[in-house]
Amino acid sequence: MTKHLTAEERRTFRNRNKVRANALKTGRPRLNVYRSGSNIYAQVIDDTKGVTMAAASTAEEEMKAKVKIGGNVAAAAAVGKLVAERAKKAGVKQVIFDRGSYLYHGRIKALAEAAREGGLEF
Fold first, then answer.
1. What are 23-67's pLDDT values in tens digits?
2. Domains in the chain, please, with CATH?
3. What is the per-residue burial (b if ≥16 Cβ within 10 Å, else e) of 81-111?
4. Best label site of 10, 60, 92, 98, fewest CB within 10 Å?
5. C-alpha to C-alpha distance for 84 and 90, rounded to whole angstroms
6. pLDDT digits (tens, 9 = 90+) for 70-97
7. Is 91 left (phi over 0), alpha (psi -120 to 50) or beta?
8. Which residues of 51-64 are buried (b: 16+ CB within 10 A; e: fewer)?
9. Euclidean distance between CA atoms 67 and 9, whole angstroms
């Protein structure tokens, strides 16, 4: 039996396959973003090795102390800055932004802009 994908799953796969192919072609890692109702997560993933190089989220104890609510724009900006710092420590300066199925606005946009301010190029 075949599994029928939802519109969100199709959108995710379509976007992620393009981003992953571009990341493999250029050799850049990708900055992957996932958001839930109460938290936001970001990872810098090297697809050639299959390794997560840096990660940050509002679910970490360090971020819980800084941010009161983990599911808002301010929290997303804080995660963007933190993932940029950790990526730079890992030696990553250029990434490809993987927004998944999310539109580029709100928390996703805030995270991306904060990561750019933190020193990541994409």
1. 889 999 999 999 999 999 999 999 989 999 999 999 999 999 999
2. 16-117 (3.30.420.100)
3. bbbbbbbeeeebeebbbbbbebeeeebbbbb
4. 10
5. 10
6. 999 999 999 999 999 999 999 999 999 9
7. left
8. eebbbbbbebeebe
9. 30
